């Protein structure tokens, strides 16, 4: 596949690159094999030697990497947008466990929910997702099959929990839970074993729900299994005041201590929330190589603290964004980006008001982030946390991308919620994508601007 147009990406935190009129070549395995300005002689030779024609992007559009969602509870999509009035531990009993149990008991409903979830993800430009599933392996295999068919890159976690406040929704013992986790890993890999390696979009994930639902025996067993099979690990850590207090009272340790001792804090680990991690704990996260799924919306509902995002980034902790459906009500990572900036700005305001003097204000490191940094988190940051090569346009990276249509250059009209007021007759030849236009899309854009999306080089959607 050969495409020509404007490319936008964030190779590093805070860095926004606009690559105007570039040729990008995607090989049969879905990886970028060539990228350079289209007007170069070398690019002309590549085009001439190609066995297929060049496809120009629509004028007034650009490519940006597809989004990564590092934390989404697939079964909770069943009741997305409701039930957000309770504290975390009460909410789990009243809504989360109930919905997960319902889907585990009804495979047909699970398939309907997950197919609709795939549609919504693609509409939102999300190409890679780290999923929390349910206890029952078969339900998680449905999730994996549906996402593979839809073309969404899916890391699927079968829940492991041998402790529960809901007697009907729990595994019988640590041994039973470990055996089920091992079988799920094998079954998940087997489900795509017939496909070429580059077409296998699903991976199993070891998923202890969180410390209050897992015995020490189960956690240490999962840590050993993760090391044996070299698979991704995910959980919730230091999420809310009541959860942190429960762990401290019952286990006499902090979350991070327990996960580390169990071998569940590694370079393949993604921990959601982490709002109660202090500076020494963030240092430990960086040393372990574990990543954080920052979920600003659900944190606002269920945590009494805001995640120390700037401090984590300053220390080199890997961070990406998550929607945390249904603890957060929006499946769109664009909203997570905006919320991440808003929360950080509120933290910065609190810091300034609490500081002692103007001199201290100037010397201290601001804790806010800007829109460019949030775009990095939604793309390259998330991909890096998952061990993926995508999230950036470079040779060898997976071509995980979305085409964003900003403006009809014939009429001068913006697409969707975007409006422009310059002289329409002149724009066809003079108008270019710039940082101001991209920021406008970041602030106001929605699904109407999404013209097409690719995952591993495969086109998964295109607007007429």
UniProtKB/TrEMBL annotation:
Q: Enumerate the cofactors the protein uses.
A: Zn(2+)
Tell me a Gene Ontology molecular-function term this record carries. Answer: guanine deaminase activity
**Where on the tree of life does the source sit, at the highest rank?**
Eukaryota
Q: Which GO terms describe its cellular component?
A: cytosol
Q: What is this protein called?
A: Metallo-dependent hydrolase
**One of the protein's GO biological processes:** guanine metabolic process
- Which residue intervals define the domain Amidohydrolase-related in the entry? 62-405
* UniProt entry keywords in alphabetical sequence: Hydrolase, Metal-binding, Zinc
The cross-references to InterPro entries, in alphabetical order and at most eight, read: Amidohydro-rel, Metal-dep_hydrolase_composite, Metal_Hydrolase, Metallo-dep_hydrolases
